[in-house]
Amino acid sequence: MARDALSHYKGWIFAASGAGLLGAAFLLYRPGRTCPTDPRVARMCAVADRWNRRVLGLAGALWVLGAFAAYLLLPLRQWLDL
Questions:
Q1: What are the boundaries of each domain within the chain?
Q2: What pLDDT score does 81 carry?
């Protein structure tokens, strides 16, 4: 039952997750974003920023892989006659 609902709303799910990733990217790369001036907190902010960029990149790569598998893999296989 849940599998049918997910496949039925696949477009909406990919659109919502893509919008979430774009929103996260905007928050991460928005202009004027700075870390605090306290050296200890600034170091922690820089480490968190590095990890946020890594996690966002991984999430984006997984989203692209999922979109490829969900939308392009079957037509590509049919086109190549595999």
A1: 2-80
A2: 82
